Amino acid sequence: MTTGFKRIMENVVQSRVRVDSPALTVRDRVTPYSRKQNLISAPHCHVARRFIQFFFIVVFLLQGAVHAAPGTTIPELPNLSDDRPAKITYTDAIILGVVEGLTEYLPVSSTGHLILANRFLGLDSDQPLANQSGENGAPVRTLREAANAYAIIIQGGAILAVLIIYWQRILDIIAGVFGRSRTGLLLFRNLVVAFLPAAIFGLLLESWIDRHLFGPLPVINALVVGAFLMLAVEKWRGRRKSETFSEGPDLHELTVTRSLMIGLLQCVAMWPGTSRSMMTIVGGYLAGLSPTRAAEFSFLLGLVTLSAASGYKAVSEGRWMLESLDLGPVIVGILVATVFAALSVKWLVTYLARHGLGIFAWYRIILALVAVNLLFG
Fold first, then answer.
1. Deepest of 59, 222, 233, 372, by most Cβ within 10 A of its Cβ?
2. What is the tally of helices (H) and strands (E) in the chain?
3. Cα–Cα distance between 219 and 308 in angstroms, integer?
4. Is the predicted pLDDT of residue 377 greater than 90, yes or no?
């Protein structure tokens, strides 16, 4: 008994000597966060570059496969509402509000879902709006333009949901801006750095994206490629679970470089069907964040990005939106989107911490197969 106790004490002393020995380098005496920092240095940046290259190569091949044959025509998705009125109705508002709220922060692409929903609701039409006169040389807006504008407006519901749920984080950021919270100031810095790439490339590529990428086929391609990206990331993350810690760095502890990496990955989501949430959560993984904190950073970055996009749309096209869209359906859509966005945010944080992104990858594949069946079947 005495011998066993003596051995235990010797092991304890030896372990303390190994930790406290001055001969050890700083690299050997690491805290959990500093060890995480070592794990996510150069190799992780390399992984991020590989993922981006993989995404664009596969999407290029998919697009090429469809358009390679001369004279290839793409059949239209079936329109389930051919005799609909030429305006956004309350039924449209509720359906689109649910779609926007549920999918905005889930890694399944809200834009892709809204494009498909608009097609099935009959909103993807060049029919002139019912309340447009075209007097005084004013351009006559189409139902398609109104639906695209409406999709931007109801993002206000998703913005409101994050403001409500993460009000403490928001107040901390505001305090940081006014010099009263160091953590809030650092988080503000990280969000601004992550937002800048989308602001720059969004302005440069907006017209090209609207012309070439807004349609069922590009959405289907992005859904499939995004699914395989998520499966690859989950497999990569699973191999490192034993080397990582449950939480990792907090959001304000991200470096400028890693915040910029997340922002660059968010730019990939300008391809409709990719999912801004998916790319920023993946970026959070690569930056060393836990699933919960990666989701939180994605939500807060989405708050900035969506607010900027909605504000830009309001400034550039707000006047005709007010003239063309009925106020009632706009309010209903925003309220419905707020409720369902709040539910999806709360659920996603809990789910990711336990299960990861795998289920969303399979959902995207199933959705793509259903859309392909309707498109080519």
1. 222
2. 15, 0
3. 23
4. no
